[in-house]
Amino acid sequence: xxxxxxxxxxxxxxxxxxxxxxxRVQGKEGEKITFDNVLMLDNGSKITVGSPNVKxxxxxxxxxxxxxxxxxxVFKKKRRKGYRVxxxxxxxxxxxxxxxxxxxxxxxxxxxxxxxxxxxxKPAVKKAPAKKTATATxxxxxxxxx
Length: 146
Fold this sequence. Notes:
By secondary structure, the chain is of the alpha+beta class. The protein has helices at 106-119, 134-145, and strands at 2-7, 10-15, 19-23, 32-35, 38-42, 47-49, 58-68, 72-78, 83-89, 92-102. A hairpin with a 4-residue loop joins strand 8 (72-78) and strand 9.
């Protein structure tokens, strides 16, 4: 089973037992985390696309280690001006292992829908305010022109 999950603002295609490097995630090494922001599920025969998320679906993962990415050099220069700036950047990453991709459960949803229908009450019907007559609006329009 495949899924597309949003983790730390980026979208990743995941499946069971896959390893990912994502932006730094809060938690200690060895800790289990759950991602509820599942955008799409592919069950082989059935594809479920969320709007924006698939309700009830989640992905469970385990934090393997925290590390830093390779250094990226940022060099800026303006020719003939004597302007040169050199900076380096190392992105903080977390390596995670996807342990489980959970689908939505339909039994719980049907129960909650029935309960919600019973709880909903119809609001009282309010009468619309009376409309002004055409002669009253003409008189106010003439007085406003003077």
